[in-house]
Amino acid sequence: MTEPAGISVVIPNYNGTTLLKDNIPSIINALNRWGGPHEIIIVDDCSVDESCKVIMREFPAVKLIVNQANAGFSRTCNRGFAEARYPIILCINNDVKAEPDFVAPLLTHFSDSGVFAVTPNILAERDGKNQGIVSGGFGKGFIRGGFAPLDARGGVRENLYAVGACVAYDAAKLRDLGGYAEIYCPYLFEDVDLSYRGWKRGWKSLYEPASTVHHFSSATIGRTKKRVKRTIYFRNRFLFHWINLTDPSFRAANYIHTALRLLVSFLWLDLPYYASFFGALRRLGEVRKLRKTVLATLATGDAEIVARTGTPLRDR
Known about the structure:
By secondary structure, the protein is α/β, with parallel strands linked by helices. About 40% of the residues lie in helices and about 25% in strands. Strands 1, 2, 3, 4, 5, 6, 7, 8, 9, 10 and 11 form an eleven-stranded mixed β-sheet that branches. Helix 1 links the parallel strand 1 (about 5-15) and strand 2. It starts with 6 loop residues before the first strand and ends in a 7-residue tail after the last helix.
Protein backbone atom coordinates (compact mmCIF):
# COMPACT_ATOMS: atom_id res chain seq x y z
CA MET A 1 0.00 0.00 0.00
CA THR A 2 1.19 3.52 -0.80
CA GLU A 3 1.86 5.80 2.14
CA PRO A 4 0.71 9.45 2.16
CA ALA A 5 3.17 12.16 1.11
CA GLY A 6 3.73 13.63 4.57
CA ILE A 7 2.51 14.02 8.12
CA SER A 8 1.81 17.03 10.34
CA VAL A 9 2.05 16.38 14.08
CA VAL A 10 -0.12 18.66 16.23
CA ILE A 11 0.53 18.74 19.99
CA PRO A 12 -1.76 20.76 22.29
CA ASN A 13 0.10 21.89 25.38
CA TYR A 14 -0.79 23.34 28.75
CA ASN A 15 1.82 23.47 31.52
CA GLY A 16 3.66 20.51 30.06
CA THR A 17 7.29 21.39 30.77
CA THR A 18 8.19 18.01 32.27
CA LEU A 19 5.98 15.98 29.94
CA LEU A 20 7.35 17.55 26.76
CA LYS A 21 10.92 16.51 27.58
CA ASP A 22 9.84 12.89 27.02
CA ASN A 23 7.11 13.55 24.48
CA ILE A 24 8.90 15.62 21.82
CA PRO A 25 12.13 13.58 21.55
CA SER A 26 10.14 10.35 21.18
CA ILE A 27 8.08 11.86 18.35
CA ILE A 28 11.12 13.32 16.59
CA ASN A 29 12.84 9.94 16.79
CA ALA A 30 9.80 8.13 15.40
CA LEU A 31 9.39 10.60 12.53
CA ASN A 32 13.07 10.29 11.63
CA ARG A 33 12.82 6.49 11.72
CA TRP A 34 9.88 6.71 9.32
CA GLY A 35 11.83 9.09 7.09
CA GLY A 36 9.06 10.91 5.21
CA PRO A 37 8.24 14.64 5.05
CA HIS A 38 6.90 15.94 8.35
CA GLU A 39 6.43 18.88 10.67
CA ILE A 40 5.69 19.31 14.37
CA ILE A 41 3.31 22.04 15.52
CA ILE A 42 2.81 22.75 19.22
CA VAL A 43 -0.09 24.99 20.23
CA ASP A 44 0.38 26.32 23.75
CA ASP A 45 -2.84 27.17 25.59
CA CYS A 46 -1.52 29.94 27.85
CA SER A 47 0.82 27.85 29.97
CA VAL A 48 2.11 29.52 33.11
CA ASP A 49 5.12 27.23 33.46
CA GLU A 50 8.33 27.12 31.38
CA SER A 51 6.80 25.20 28.46
CA CYS A 52 7.36 27.81 25.75
CA LYS A 53 10.92 28.57 26.86
CA VAL A 54 11.77 24.87 26.87
CA ILE A 55 10.30 24.35 23.39
CA MET A 56 12.13 27.33 21.88
CA ARG A 57 15.43 26.50 23.57
CA GLU A 58 15.56 22.72 23.18
CA PHE A 59 13.43 22.09 20.08
CA PRO A 60 13.99 25.00 17.67
CA ALA A 61 12.71 23.05 14.66
CA VAL A 62 9.24 22.79 16.22
CA LYS A 63 6.67 25.39 15.13
CA LEU A 64 5.28 27.00 18.30
CA ILE A 65 1.92 28.78 18.32
CA VAL A 66 0.80 30.50 21.52
CA ASN A 67 -2.85 31.23 22.29
CA GLN A 68 -3.53 34.73 23.55
CA ALA A 69 -6.23 33.46 25.90
CA ASN A 70 -6.94 30.02 27.36
CA ALA A 71 -9.03 28.33 24.66
CA GLY A 72 -9.54 24.72 25.75
CA PHE A 73 -8.64 21.50 23.98
CA SER A 74 -10.86 21.73 20.88
CA ARG A 75 -9.92 25.28 19.90
CA THR A 76 -6.26 24.68 20.66
CA CYS A 77 -6.12 21.59 18.45
CA ASN A 78 -8.13 23.26 15.69
CA ARG A 79 -5.63 26.09 15.57
CA GLY A 80 -2.88 23.54 14.97
CA PHE A 81 -4.96 21.69 12.38
CA ALA A 82 -5.41 24.94 10.45
CA GLU A 83 -1.62 25.35 10.21
CA ALA A 84 -0.91 21.77 9.11
CA ARG A 85 0.58 21.36 5.62
CA TYR A 86 0.48 17.60 5.04
CA PRO A 87 -2.34 15.19 4.08
CA ILE A 88 -2.20 13.26 7.38
CA ILE A 89 -2.53 15.04 10.72
CA LEU A 90 -1.33 13.23 13.82
CA CYS A 91 -2.88 14.72 16.96
CA ILE A 92 -0.95 13.64 20.04
CA ASN A 93 -1.14 14.79 23.66
CA ASN A 94 1.87 16.10 25.53
CA ASP A 95 1.52 13.22 28.01
CA VAL A 96 2.14 10.57 25.34
CA LYS A 97 5.49 8.91 24.61
CA ALA A 98 5.86 7.21 21.24
CA GLU A 99 7.73 4.03 20.45
CA PRO A 100 10.28 4.34 17.61
CA ASP A 101 8.37 2.54 14.84
CA PHE A 102 4.83 3.73 15.52
CA VAL A 103 4.38 6.01 12.48
CA ALA A 104 4.49 3.78 9.38
CA PRO A 105 1.83 1.21 10.41
CA LEU A 106 -0.71 3.99 10.97
CA LEU A 107 -0.16 5.55 7.56
CA THR A 108 -0.66 2.45 5.43
CA HIS A 109 -4.42 2.52 6.06
CA PHE A 110 -4.97 5.87 4.38
CA SER A 111 -4.68 4.35 0.91
CA ASP A 112 -8.29 3.30 1.62
CA SER A 113 -10.46 6.33 0.80
CA GLY A 114 -13.00 5.20 3.40
CA VAL A 115 -10.61 5.57 6.33
CA PHE A 116 -10.88 8.72 8.44
CA ALA A 117 -8.84 7.97 11.55
CA VAL A 118 -6.35 5.39 12.84
CA THR A 119 -5.20 4.84 16.42
CA PRO A 120 -2.24 2.78 17.68
CA ASN A 121 -2.03 0.83 20.91
CA ILE A 122 -2.43 3.62 23.46
CA LEU A 123 -1.14 1.97 26.60
CA ALA A 124 -2.37 3.71 29.74
CA GLU A 125 -0.43 1.66 32.27
CA ARG A 126 -1.76 3.61 35.24
CA ASP A 127 -5.34 2.74 34.27
CA GLY A 128 -4.61 -0.78 33.03
CA LYS A 129 -6.20 -0.01 29.64
CA ASN A 130 -5.32 -0.08 25.97
CA GLN A 131 -7.16 3.08 24.89
CA GLY A 132 -6.40 2.37 21.23
CA ILE A 133 -9.13 -0.29 21.15
CA VAL A 134 -12.62 1.15 21.70
CA SER A 135 -15.62 -1.18 21.49
CA GLY A 136 -19.05 0.28 20.79
CA GLY A 137 -22.22 -0.37 22.74
CA PHE A 138 -25.59 1.16 23.60
CA GLY A 139 -27.30 0.96 26.96
CA LYS A 140 -29.73 2.97 29.08
CA GLY A 141 -30.17 5.44 26.25
CA PHE A 142 -26.50 6.25 25.68
CA ILE A 143 -23.72 5.27 23.29
CA ARG A 144 -20.97 3.64 25.31
CA GLY A 145 -17.33 3.11 24.42
CA GLY A 146 -15.25 0.53 26.26
CA PHE A 147 -11.45 0.37 26.35
CA ALA A 148 -9.67 -2.97 26.09
CA PRO A 149 -7.42 -4.40 28.83
CA LEU A 150 -3.80 -3.25 28.78
CA ASP A 151 -2.47 -6.47 27.24
CA ALA A 152 -5.15 -6.73 24.52
CA ARG A 153 -3.99 -6.57 20.91
CA GLY A 154 -5.66 -8.72 18.24
CA GLY A 155 -5.91 -7.64 14.64
CA VAL A 156 -6.92 -4.48 12.83
CA ARG A 157 -10.47 -3.58 13.86
CA GLU A 158 -13.07 -0.86 13.52
CA ASN A 159 -13.28 1.43 16.55
CA LEU A 160 -16.26 3.32 17.92
CA TYR A 161 -14.01 6.36 18.07
CA ALA A 162 -10.38 7.37 17.78
CA VAL A 163 -8.97 8.58 21.09
CA GLY A 164 -7.60 12.12 20.81
CA ALA A 165 -4.54 11.27 22.92
CA CYS A 166 -2.91 9.84 19.80
CA VAL A 167 -4.69 9.60 16.46
CA ALA A 168 -3.85 10.00 12.78
CA TYR A 169 -6.55 11.77 10.74
CA ASP A 170 -7.10 12.18 7.03
CA ALA A 171 -6.59 15.96 6.90
CA ALA A 172 -9.11 16.60 4.12
CA LYS A 173 -11.86 14.69 5.93
CA LEU A 174 -10.93 16.35 9.22
CA ARG A 175 -11.36 19.79 7.68
CA ASP A 176 -14.58 18.75 5.96
CA LEU A 177 -15.97 17.86 9.39
CA GLY A 178 -14.80 21.22 10.76
CA GLY A 179 -12.25 19.74 13.17
CA TYR A 180 -13.14 19.24 16.79
CA ALA A 181 -16.54 20.74 17.62
CA GLU A 182 -15.85 23.67 19.94
CA ILE A 183 -19.21 23.27 21.64
CA TYR A 184 -17.42 20.75 23.92
CA CYS A 185 -14.86 23.22 25.27
CA PRO A 186 -12.98 23.16 27.55
CA TYR A 187 -12.59 19.35 27.12
CA LEU A 188 -14.20 15.87 26.96
CA PHE A 189 -16.17 14.19 24.13
CA GLU A 190 -14.64 16.20 21.27
CA ASP A 191 -12.73 13.15 19.99
CA VAL A 192 -15.76 10.87 20.45
CA ASP A 193 -17.95 13.30 18.53
CA LEU A 194 -15.48 13.81 15.68
CA SER A 195 -15.09 10.10 14.96
CA TYR A 196 -18.83 9.52 15.31
CA ARG A 197 -19.65 12.30 12.87
CA GLY A 198 -17.14 10.67 10.53
CA TRP A 199 -18.89 7.32 10.95
CA LYS A 200 -22.20 9.02 10.15
CA ARG A 201 -20.70 9.96 6.78
CA GLY A 202 -19.51 6.39 6.24
CA TRP A 203 -15.85 7.04 7.18
CA LYS A 204 -14.11 4.41 9.28
CA SER A 205 -12.04 4.73 12.46
CA LEU A 206 -9.52 1.89 12.77
CA TYR A 207 -7.16 0.42 15.34
CA GLU A 208 -3.64 -0.63 14.23
CA PRO A 209 -1.95 -3.19 16.53
CA ALA A 210 1.56 -2.81 15.04
CA SER A 211 1.88 0.76 16.34
CA THR A 212 2.32 1.66 20.03
CA VAL A 213 2.47 4.72 22.29
CA HIS A 214 2.33 5.12 26.08
CA HIS A 215 -0.17 7.50 27.68
CA PHE A 216 0.19 9.02 31.12
CA SER A 217 -3.57 9.36 31.16
CA SER A 218 -5.15 12.71 32.12
CA ALA A 219 -1.87 14.15 33.34
CA THR A 220 -3.06 17.66 32.48
CA ILE A 221 -6.75 17.68 33.46
CA GLY A 222 -6.32 15.18 36.31
CA ARG A 223 -5.90 18.02 38.78
CA THR A 224 -9.31 19.51 37.97
CA LYS A 225 -11.85 19.25 40.78
CA LYS A 226 -13.93 16.08 40.46
CA ARG A 227 -17.24 17.94 40.71
CA VAL A 228 -16.30 20.32 37.88
CA LYS A 229 -15.05 17.50 35.67
CA ARG A 230 -18.20 15.47 36.33
CA THR A 231 -20.44 18.40 35.39
CA ILE A 232 -18.53 18.95 32.15
CA TYR A 233 -18.64 15.22 31.38
CA PHE A 234 -22.44 14.93 31.68
CA ARG A 235 -23.09 18.22 29.89
CA ASN A 236 -20.98 17.10 26.95
CA ARG A 237 -22.55 13.64 26.96
CA PHE A 238 -25.95 15.28 26.57
CA LEU A 239 -24.64 17.45 23.75
CA PHE A 240 -23.05 14.49 21.93
CA HIS A 241 -26.27 12.49 21.88
CA TRP A 242 -28.50 15.41 20.94
CA ILE A 243 -26.22 16.20 18.01
CA ASN A 244 -25.54 12.69 16.74
CA LEU A 245 -28.31 10.17 17.46
CA THR A 246 -30.43 9.59 14.36
CA ASP A 247 -32.01 6.12 14.70
CA PRO A 248 -35.54 6.61 16.13
CA SER A 249 -35.19 3.79 18.65
CA PHE A 250 -31.90 5.17 19.95
CA ARG A 251 -33.33 8.68 20.27
CA ALA A 252 -36.44 7.43 22.09
CA ALA A 253 -34.34 5.43 24.56
CA ASN A 254 -32.14 8.46 25.19
CA TYR A 255 -35.10 10.72 25.91
CA ILE A 256 -36.76 8.19 28.22
CA HIS A 257 -33.66 7.44 30.29
CA THR A 258 -32.73 11.11 30.52
CA ALA A 259 -36.21 11.98 31.79
CA LEU A 260 -36.11 9.19 34.36
CA ARG A 261 -32.70 10.26 35.62
CA LEU A 262 -33.85 13.86 35.94
CA LEU A 263 -36.88 12.74 37.93
CA VAL A 264 -34.88 10.82 40.53
CA SER A 265 -31.48 12.51 40.77
CA PHE A 266 -32.73 14.91 43.44
CA LEU A 267 -33.19 11.93 45.76
CA TRP A 268 -29.43 11.62 46.20
CA LEU A 269 -28.81 15.35 45.77
CA ASP A 270 -27.06 14.94 42.42
CA LEU A 271 -27.04 18.66 41.69
CA PRO A 272 -24.18 18.49 39.14
CA TYR A 273 -26.40 16.31 36.93
CA TYR A 274 -29.03 19.06 36.77
CA ALA A 275 -26.32 21.67 36.18
CA SER A 276 -25.06 19.54 33.28
CA PHE A 277 -28.51 19.19 31.73
CA PHE A 278 -29.37 22.88 31.88
CA GLY A 279 -25.84 23.78 30.75
CA ALA A 280 -26.44 21.67 27.65
CA LEU A 281 -29.88 23.24 27.09
CA ARG A 282 -28.21 26.65 26.90
CA ARG A 283 -26.30 25.43 23.85
CA LEU A 284 -29.30 24.21 21.86
CA GLY A 285 -28.68 26.74 19.10
CA GLU A 286 -25.22 25.28 18.47
CA VAL A 287 -26.64 21.76 18.76
CA ARG A 288 -29.16 22.44 16.00
CA LYS A 289 -26.46 23.73 13.63
CA LEU A 290 -24.24 20.70 14.16
CA ARG A 291 -27.16 18.27 13.96
CA LYS A 292 -28.23 19.81 10.66
CA THR A 293 -24.86 18.91 9.13
CA VAL A 294 -25.10 15.35 10.51
CA LEU A 295 -28.52 14.85 8.94
CA ALA A 296 -27.49 16.43 5.63
CA THR A 297 -24.63 13.96 5.12
CA LEU A 298 -26.04 10.88 6.86
CA ALA A 299 -24.78 7.57 5.45
CA THR A 300 -24.59 5.22 8.47
CA GLY A 301 -27.05 4.78 11.32
CA ASP A 302 -26.41 4.33 15.03
CA ALA A 303 -27.30 0.63 15.15
CA GLU A 304 -24.90 -0.19 12.32
CA ILE A 305 -22.04 1.77 13.92
CA VAL A 306 -22.51 0.04 17.27
CA ALA A 307 -22.78 -3.39 15.62
CA ARG A 308 -19.64 -2.90 13.52
CA THR A 309 -17.49 -1.54 16.34
CA GLY A 310 -18.68 -3.97 18.98
CA THR A 311 -17.03 -6.94 17.27
CA PRO A 312 -13.35 -7.08 16.24
CA LEU A 313 -12.39 -7.60 12.60
CA ARG A 314 -10.40 -10.69 11.75
CA ASP A 315 -6.60 -10.34 11.57
CA ARG A 316 -5.26 -9.47 8.19
